[in-house]
Amino acid sequence: MKRKVLLVLGVCMLAALVAPALAADDAPQTYVYATYHKCDLARQDRADELTKTAFAPIYDAAVADKKILSWGWIAHNTGGEWRRVDYYVAPGLDNLLAAGKAIGEKLEKDAALADHEFRTICYAHDDYIWRLVAASAPATDVARKRSADSFSTYFVCDSAKEARADEIVKETMAPLWDAQIKAGNINSWSWFEHIVGGKYRRLAVVDGPSFEKILAARGAVIQAMSEKQKDAMKEFDEICGSHQDYMWEVRLPAP
């Protein structure tokens, strides 16, 4: 949790890097700061307890003070080496960074002992900043109300062509995911672009009433793309050629 204080470092450089994208898009910009934790499997439930008792009140206060739009804590069900994720959402990159600094200072002041114990359990992490590109919900409502079950796909993409992948998602995949919402198989979907972080360049998040329904909806979308949008699907796969799937249990705030 102490890492949040470091968000202020490199703000000017980061703002310069993303300024062209912001200038080209007048729509509201929603950003997510996500920290993906690698934890001791035998003690990770204790990390959940610390988050609920020591850290959640600080994040809740940040929401109440309108420093952030929402926040969450999710737990590994199926996937790779990440075991837990904490994230928070803010309108605008400057607000995201300012909120991170304020939350980090509050954690150091009011939850230092809990933070120390937490870092002995979740001993390593990967930080990402994501920007919302498309979603079923309004930008300010993304991640505000979560389902208990969530499916995330982290894509490795050709950075020179990834904007075309965004177009394919918005033009051909979005209507298919929206149809799955109307059918009651999922509750929401969202698509994010990489701003800061590691190798993953795009992120798809689908929330639903159960993993079974999410997987059924995902299969239906893939089948529809294969049958009716074969060229678009092939082009997307060529741009974002590999991925990592995770199934997450949304623990906090409680769905």
Give a written overview of the molecule.
The chain has helices spanning 11-23, 44-64, 93-110, 112-121, 162-182, 211-228, 230-239, and strands spanning 30-39, 70-78, 84-91, 122-135, 149-156, 188-196, 202-208, 242-252. By secondary structure, the chain is α+β, with helices and mostly antiparallel strands. It is 44% helix and 30% strand. Helix 5 packs across helix 7. It is built from seven helices and eight strands; from the N terminus they run H-E-H-E-E-H-H-E-E-H-E-E-H-H-E.
Keywords:
alpha+beta; 8-stranded antiparallel beta barrel; single chain; 255 residues; globular
Outline the secondary-structure elements.
Layout: H1 11-23, E1 30-39, H2 44-64, E2 70-78, E3 84-91, H3 93-110, H4 112-121, E4 122-135, E5 149-156, H5 162-182, E6 188-196, E7 202-208, H6 211-228, H7 230-239, E8 242-252
Antiparallel strand pairs: 1-3, 1-4, 2-3, 2-8, 4-6, 5-7, 5-8, 6-7
Helix pairs in contact: 2-3, 2-4, 5-6, 5-7, 6-7
Provide the low-confidence segments as ranges. Answer: 5-25
- Helix count? 7
> How much strand content do the residues show?
25-35%
Helix content: 40-55%
Radius of gyration computed on alpha carbons: 18 Å
Tell me the strand order in the biggest sheet. Answer: 1-3-2-8-5-7-6-4
Order of helices and strands: HEHEEHHEEHEEHHE
Can you give the mean pLDDT? 91
- Biggest β-sheet strands, sense, barrel: 8 strands, antiparallel, barrel
Q: Which outline best applies?
A: globular
What's the end-to-end separation, in Å? Answer: 23 Å
Structural class: alpha+beta
Number of strands: 8
